[in-house]
Amino acid sequence: MFKIGSFSKMSRVPIKTLRYYDQRDLLKPAMIDQDSGYRYYSAGQLLKIKRIIALKKQGFTLEEIKQLLAEDISFPHVKQSLAEKQHELTEVIKEAQRQLNELDTGLRCIEELDEQVSSSSIVVRNVKKQLVASIRDQIPQVELCLLLHELKQYIQLQGEDENRPMHILRHQHHHKRDHEDMVDLEVAIPLAKEIPDSDRIKIYELPEIPQAASYVHLCDPYQTACLAQSQLTTWISKNGYRPTDQAPIREIYLTADKDIYGKLLTTELLIPVEKL
Question: Is the Cβ–Cβ distance between 219 and 251 less than 8 Å?
Fold first, then answer.
């Protein structure tokens, strides 16, 4: 017979764990001295603790191990338990692989966006027309997320990907003095195909912008003031262009919701221009 300390060293299982196995009725001491309270284990229990360790490595819970070590367990029951654990672990591997694929996609996306921002320079480019689902309303800037949520929910129900780059169009609108915090915002998400519209959601083609000054930067979409717009406006005036009112100022959020870390989004600011 071995005291718990000696049995712990021989089995390489901590004393605390052996006591826990005792509490769970998984491996009870062969004898407990009534006077001293010392726990004693038999040599034969070394085989049982090794079986417990082996089954834990296979992914079985302590309750499942207790059933597998029962004296009256049959081979069909063992076979079924092993097959069920095999299926469970296969599903765990599939889920882990899905998570790895998501992380791999996220890393590539972050690297691409980081490169875009770090190497960003202001350019004038053509913006092609784009089929979108759109919702427009006059709201406080801080409620932009509500419009986004409403639009994303709608197109998701129509089988479209809500993670495509979001377009925010800032329409010019003169408000009464007691509504100075209100802005005229339109949120649009590109579509792969035509879908039905609704009372709130409009499906149409955002028109082409022949020339737009473009600036990729990091932006907090819920702030009313953005330094990027003043920087881009200054660049436009210094480089022989002027803004036009042929289309509203547009922001394209290049970061999908699932890839957002922190508060700032990678954003392309577009201001329609014409050459002086």
Answer: yes
